[in-house]
Every structure is written in structure tokens, then in C-alpha cells.
Write a structure and sequence with these properties.
Rossmann fold, epoxide hydrolase activity, 369 residues, 13% strand, 8-stranded mixed sheet, 14 helices
């Protein structure tokens, strides 16, 4: 009798787990279908309005001059033996100084850190990386190559191949997610962690499931699961959707700060018009629902979290919720009027807050490579 009850209990637990998994993926694919339907309606409407230009876009052949601005730093490359991938990065500041590693988000590349490259090179070796699949870094074809464990390992390999065993890690958006996970997995390699508009991964997952408002703001996560269709939607009408991300009233840069000027915008259009550039960037999203949470979710490094008050993609309440996962000093600054792209539209405020955080405890003096 006891064995029968044990087997029934075990069967019930297994059935419950299967139902939860089925419900989870049903929610994801159902929302994917809804987002796709909305995107198709928008595409159909654009065809009706401007049928002759809807499917026109062009590869930019000549890079804007600002991409070769020597005041931003030196263009370098490193090939990682383990993965075989070549990474492009821009470095400013003298070799041998403490390493500040900058990880960009979507849809960005090293250029999004132009203000920070100039600002922190006086005391740091500042390195802004084109992450896997972006810019001049290699772009693996398989979506499976963009699993989070690979992206975290990339950061470790880059730090070590630059000749360091620790760094001051700064991440924005997707770069922030990877920075959180890197600090969790390799706490001994992070002196201080600075994250911009990117909640702790556990906070993002929990909050999105419990708040329909965030689920709506995260609808692009679901649309981007599809093959090829998101690339089409971002590139039609000469990259109209991509332009809108940076310039529209709801999501754009500089509503109350610095505007993205024509040349700055052209750097993004040049970079993402190159063959395969959009697919590499979108492949980050195509693995996000299948990653396994790390067993240890706490961050042991001091953390500065900067948050744009007007972020159109993330609920502000998530910023404060990150506190429960920090086992060290935690500072949160909400920047009034700043957008999701706060290091570009409010660089002076962002840089000042970062300097203040870096100088707390004079941690730089205690740093050893």
C-alpha cells in the first residue's frame, strides 16, 4: 500500500511538472503568434500606404567618419582559441591601467559607449567590445551559438586575453543581462558591477510573468523568436523600424537629453545593413526562453544600477526589486527624463554617477591585475 501511494505521488508530481512546462511553452508560442499577427497587420498597412517603397532597403557601403574618430580609441581584434571567434573592440587609455569592460545591448555596438570611452580613459583601460554577432566581431550562423552560457564565456575569455584577471564590468540592455550573469558565475573577476537599464535576470523573469504591462513591453522578445520575419520587419522601408527605436517619441534617444544626430544614426544603419548583422543580433533573443537559471543567483560584487525613468521597454519597479539579489553594496539611481538609451542621451549624468560609485571605498587603489 505504501509503495502504491509513493508511485501515485511520484506520478502526480511528474504530471504536474509536465503540465507546467506545457503551459509555459504554450504561453510563449501563443504570445509569439499574437505578436506576429500584429506585425503582419502593420506590414499590410504599410504596403497599402507606400506599396512601392515598403520592401526597399540598401546596404551602406561607406562607414561614417565618426567610426574612425581617433579620440574614441584604437580599433583592435582578438581571436579566442577556445571558441575560434574573432572579436573587435575599441580601446582607450593606457595599457596596464585597471580594465573597464563595456558590454552593449540591442540593437547597438561598441559606438554606443563613445561618451564613456572618452570619459574614463584618464584612469582606466577602457574597452568597448562588439559582442558576438555584432559589428566587426564574428557572427556564427547557428542560433544555438548565442546561448547565454556562450555569451558569458566570451566575456571571461576576452578579459583574460586582454591580460587581466579582474575588471570593472559595465553593461547596458542585453549587455547588462550578460554582465549580471558573469558577475554571478565569476564573482572573483568583477571588482565592481555597473548595469544600465537591465534588471537582474531573475527579476525580469518573475516580474514579466506576474505583470501584463511588462509582458506587453517585452512583446519583441516573442516576435523575435521567429526565423527571418523579424529581420524583414526591421529592414523594410529602409530600416524604418530600426530608425524608430532610436528616434521616435516613445522609444528614442534624447527626449530630454542629447539627441542622436544624423551621423550617429547613420552609424547604426551602416552597421545593421551589413549582411547577417540583424540575424546575429536577433539570435540573442532566440535562446532567451530556454536558458537554465544559474543555481546561485546572488551577486557578490558592489553594484551600481542606473535606470532611465522614461524607459519604454522596462517597468521601473524592477530596478528596486534587484536589491534582494545583491550581497554587497547596492546603489540605485533613477535618472529623470532619461530613456532606455541613457548612456547616450544623458552621458554627463551617467558618467558622474559612475565616477562617484567607482571612488566609493577607493576600490581602484586596491585593484591588482
Amino acid at each position: 500500500m505504501a509503495r502504491l501511494l509513493h508511485n501515485l505521488l511520484l506520478l502526480t508530481v511528474r504530471l504536474t511538472l509536465k503540465i507546467r512546462v506545457l503551459s509555459y511553452w504554450s504561453l510563449i508560442y501563443g504570445y509569439c503568434a499574437l505578436c506576429t499577427a500584429v506585425a503582419l497587420l502593420k506590414l499590410w498597412w504599410s504596403i497599402l500606404i507606400r506599396p512601392s517603397t515598403t520592401f526597399q532597403w540598401a546596404i551602406r557601403e561607406t562607414p561614417p567618419a565618426c567610426l574612425n574618430d581617433t579620440s574614441l580609441g584604437t580599433h583592435c581584434y582578438v581571436r579566442i582559441k577556445e571558441s575560434g571567434l574573432r572579436f573587435h573592440y575599441v580601446a582607450a587609455g593606457e595599457r596596464g591601467r585597471p580594465l573597464m569592460l563595456l558590454l552593449h545591448g540591442f540593437p547597438e555596438f561598441w559606438f554606443s559607449w563613445r561618451y564613456q570611452l572618452r570619459e574614463f580613459k584618464s584612469e582606466f583601460r577602457v574597452v568597448a567590445v562588439d559582442m558576438r554577432g555584432y559589428g566587426e566581431s564574428d557572427q556564427p550562423l547557428s542560433a544555438d551559438s548565442y546561448r547565454l552560457d556562450h555569451l558569458v564565456t566570451d566575456v571571461k575569455d576576452i578579459v583574460e586575453y586582454l591580460g587581466y584577471n579582474r575588471c570593472f564590468l559595465v553593461g547596458h540592455d542585453w549587455g547588462g543581462i550578460i554582465a549580471w550573469l558573469f558577475a554571478i558565475q565569476y564573482p572573483e573577476m568583477v571588482v565592481k558591477l555597473i548595469v544600465l537599464n537591465s534588471p537582474h535576470p531573475s527579476v525580469l523573469a518573475d516580474y514579466a510573468l506576474r505583470h501584463p504591462s511588462q509582458l506587453l513591453k517585452s512583446s519583441h522578445f516573442f516576435l523575435f523568436q521567429l526565423p527571418r520575419f523579424p529581420e524583414l520587419m526591421l529592414s523594410i522601408n529602409d530600416f524604418k523600424a530600426l530608425r524608430s527605436l532610436f528616434t521616435s517619441r516613445n522609444t528614442g534617444i534624447g527626449r530630454k537629453g542629447r539627441w542622436l544626430n544624423t551621423e550617429d544614426l547613420e552609424t547604426y544603419l551602416y552597421t545593421f545593413s551589413q549582411p547577417g548583422a540583424l540575424t546575429g543580433a536577433l539570435n540573442y533573443f532566440r535562446n532567451v526562453f530556454s536558458f537554465l537559471p544559474l543555481s546561485q543567483n546572488n551577486v557578490m560584487s558592489p553594484v551600481l544600477l542606473l535606470w532611465g525613468e522614461q524607459d519604454a521597454f522596462l517597468e521601473q519597479e524592477m530596478a528596486e526589486a534587484c536589491r534582494i539579489y545583491i550581497r554587497n553594496h547596492f546603489r540605485l539611481n533613477i535618472i529623470s527624463g532619461a530613456s532606455h538609451w541613457l548612456q547616450q542621451d544623458q552621458p554627463d549624468i551617467v558618467n558622474t554617477l559612475i565616477w562617484t560609485f567607482l571612488k566609493e571605498g577607493e576600490c581602484r587603489k586596491m585593484y591588482r591585475n
